[in-house]
Amino acid sequence: MNQGEIYAKTEEGVRELKERKRSLPIALRSLLIMVDGSRTVAEVLERARALRVDVTALATLERAGMIAKRFSAPSAAESELASAPRSETEVQQFLAAQQQLSDAINEHLGFRGYMMMMRLQRAGNLRDLHDLLPDFAKAMVKRMGIDAATPIVGELEQSIVRGG
């Protein structure tokens, strides 16, 4: 488990916090509460220092299906790419696709799309938008059905991948 990765609770993890069916030890339960989808592994472990847990406790929660990796730690190659200057065309394509995705989330998902909108705001490039697309598609299918969601998602994908 990389210290820079970010984990979030799964549906199973949220259910466990509500129902307490697995009778987790207090340290593991407290650690599960601290996993919020926005802090890195290192930050969670730092906050959980008083619980005397380490990365193996997080691995235990992951194996039990209560947490899942949300964002990977950036690789050295990715950080070099991120600092590379972007062309004007690429910037315009990103801004247009970001606005289009934002409009679609607001129009079709409303408040249900709040977390997705938060992820969208953190997106810094077309790759980030592309990584968000499967979750958006899943939410759209759940909300509208596959027939209604397909053209909307297809248009967004074309905008992100091909620039128009």
Strand proportion: 5-15%
The main sheet orders its strands as: 1-2
Radius of gyration: 18 Å
- What is the total tally of β strands? 2
The overall pLDDT, averaged over residues, is: 85
How far apart the termini lie comes to: 38 Å
- Give the number of helices: 9
Percent helix among the residues? Answer: 55-70%
Please state the overall shape, judged from the principal axes of the Cα atoms: globular
Structural class computed from helices and strand pairing:
mainly alpha
Biggest pleated sheet: 2 strands, antiparallel
Task: List the helices and strands in order.
Answer: EHHHHEHHHHH
Low-confidence sequence ranges? none
Describe what you observe in this structure:
The chain is mostly helical and 164 residues long. 66% of the residues lie in helices and 5% in strands. It is built from nine helices and two strands; from the N terminus they run E-H-H-H-H-E-H-H-H-H-H. The protein has helices spanning 11-19, 26-34, 41-47, 55-63, 76-83, 88-109, 114-122, 126-144, 146-161; strands spanning 6-9, 67-71. It has a two-stranded antiparallel ribbon with strand order 1-2. Helix 6 packs antiparallel against helix 9. The protein starts with 5 loop residues before the first strand and ends with a helix. The mean pLDDT is 85.
